[in-house]
Amino acid sequence: MENEKQAVTQSPAPASTLVLSRHSEKGRQVYLLRRSEQSRFMAGRYVFPGGRVDADDGDLEFWKTHVDLSPEEMRWRLAGSIPLEDACAHAVAAIRETFEECGVLLARHRKGEGAQCQVADLLREPHRSHRKERFREWMAAGDWVLALSLMRPWSHWITPKVQPRRYDTRFYLASMPEGQECDPDQLETTHGLWVGPGEALEANGRGDLPLSPPTLVTLHEIVFGNPSANELEKKNGDLWGQARTPRLVLSSMGPILLLPWAPGFNKDRPIGQENLKKRVLPVGVPFSKLWLDQGIWHPVG
């Protein structure tokens, strides 16, 4: 029991997520990965590529010669109110984790020619699970420059306090690099697909594509926006906006996740707990609450 208390009250670990998008004949699509059923966080759910920030990700002295932004540009475009070292660490982690999980490298080679072929060579390494340990080595030896300039800060999420594993995650948006293909690692991730944001939300509602709550909210914002959330961000005035730390409450019909802009967010009994099936909202309608029913998070009114 004591270990459980310590896990619940632990500080959230820094993490990063990269929303890859592309334009296709079907319109705008994003790339989603299904986390392994053995994962200790979001097992079996579809998420964007991402993961924890490692110590090497924050070595500013090393990375400032291997990224395409100067420290001042990085501060202006990616940092906002957070320290420059943290901004560097989160951005590098987003690129590294995306490379590890789906084989996409958001980078340019100093020599230019043949860069995509060299990405393919990296992916043919016999031990894909060693990408994390060798990423910095590869970047230095191969003379790569990480393309931080292609990344756009999107949102800042912190896992609810009652969760046993907590993360302080920065979400970025970037276009899929030309000439590369997504390839799940079959370790942390078991399936990947390109899908329209609205199509993914519809599939989640049917139970065909179970999304994590931040993924669900992000997809909704990409397509429809969310006036309540946007107002919350504007009040903060920072590049990243106000951190989103949802509140998890229990009901007789299952867990309910209150988003920070939900009415009554700080009240002991913020919403009614009856007839939740009748309060599930269709895709496109703004929401501030999510209800977990049979393994699927649904927006509810």
What's a concise summary of this model?
The chain is built from nine helices and 13 strands. It has helices at 2-9, 60-63, 71-79, 84-102, 115-123, 131-141, 197-206, 213-224, 227-236, and strands at 13-24, 27-35, 46-47, 50-52, 107-109, 144-146, 152-158, 167-175, 189-195, 247-249, 256-258, 289-293, 296-300.
3D architecture notes:
This protein is of the alpha+beta class and 301 residues long. It folds into 2 domains: 2-245, Nucleoside Triphosphate Pyrophosphohydrolase (Alpha-Beta Complex), CATH 3.90.79; 246-301, no CATH class. It is 31% helix and 24% strand. The protein contains 9 helices and 13 strands. Strands 1, 2, 3, 4, 7, 8 and 9 form a 7-stranded mixed beta sheet that branches. β1 and β2 (27-35) form a beta hairpin. α7 (197-206) crosses α8. The longest helix has 19 residues, at 84-102. The protein is globular, with a radius of gyration of 19 Å. Mean pLDDT is 85; it is low at 1-8.
Strand content: 15-25%
Radius of gyration: 19 Å
Shape call: globular
Mean pLDDT: 85
Helix fraction, binned, reads 25-40%
Question: How many strand segments?
Answer: 13
Integer tally of domains: 2
Listing every helix as H and every strand as E from the N terminus to the C terminus, the arrangement reads HEEEEHHHEHHEEEEHHHEEEE
The CATH topology of the largest domain is Nucleoside Triphosphate Pyrophosphohydrolase
Largest sheet: 7 strands, mixed
CATH class division of the largest domain: Alpha Beta
Q: Number of DSSP helices?
A: 9
